[in-house]
Amino acid sequence: MRRQGRHPAEARLAVEAIERWRTLEQELEADLHYRRGGNLLLAESDAEAQQLVTFVRQQREHGFADVQLIDRQEALALVPGLNAQVIAGSYSPGDGQADPMLTTRAFAAAAIRHGALYWTATECQALLTRGTHVIGAQTGRGAVQAGAVVLAAGSWSAELATTIGLQLPVRMQALQMIRSTPDTPGTVQPVLSALNRSLSLKQLNNGSFLIGGGWPGDPAPDRRSYTLRPTSIQGNWTTACELLPAVSQQQIAQAWCGLEALSFDEIPFIGPAPERAGLTLALGFSGHGFAISPAVGRAVADQLVGRPTPELDGLRPDRMASFDTAQVATFLKNIDDQGGAG
Question: Would you say residue 198 lies in a domain?
Answer without folding.
Answer: no
